[in-house]
Inverse folding.
């Protein structure tokens, strides 16, 4: 088992790396800058934060709102609230805590996928177990972030998954 897992693991990365036994991060800084430049010509990335800890939401909001291309349009401390906000606000990205009091993150993701709402879902957790990450991604999440990641990794993940959803809208 890998001791140190890097941020920004996607479904395709997990599948690809089963054979290679390693994980890779989201795109390089150069690729992210290219994506940012592309996004400057497009609309703002709309994000909803769902975590039962207000301090986590506040910290991630501060990181994201430093970038003019990203707008946090809603916050929820519950899974049910996150589902409701996604239906009402139709964001590009949902940053979703895996462990919330009323619903697990995978339950929220499955419900949103059943309703066929187009939103990219990034899982947030403190767990770094390979098996847990793979199960999380199989539940309908588009990426996985450890809550201890550097701000740049969070931004990379948001830009990366938002590109996929924007191309399909």
């Amino acid at each position: 088992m890998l001791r140190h897992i890097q941020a920004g693991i996607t479904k395709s990365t997990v599948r690809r790396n089963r054979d290679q036994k390693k994980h890779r991060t989201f795109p390089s800084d150069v690729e992210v800058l290219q994506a940012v430049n592309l996004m400057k010509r497009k609309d703002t990335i709309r994000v909803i934060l769902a975590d039962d800890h207000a301090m986590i939401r506040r910290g991630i909001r501060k990181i994201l709102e430093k970038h003019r291309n990203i707008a946090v349009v809603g916050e929820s401390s519950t899974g049910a609230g996150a589902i409701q906000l996604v239906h009402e606000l139709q964001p590009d990205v949902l940053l979703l805590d895996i462990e919330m009091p009323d619903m697990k993150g995978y339950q929220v993701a499955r419900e949103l996928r059943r309703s066929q709402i187009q939103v990219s879902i990034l899982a947030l957790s403190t767990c770094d177990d390979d098996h847990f990450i793979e199960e999380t991604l199989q539940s309908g999440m588009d990426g996985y972030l450890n809550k201890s990641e550097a701000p740049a990794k969070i931004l990379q993940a948001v830009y990366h998954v938002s590109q996929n959803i924007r191309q399909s809208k």
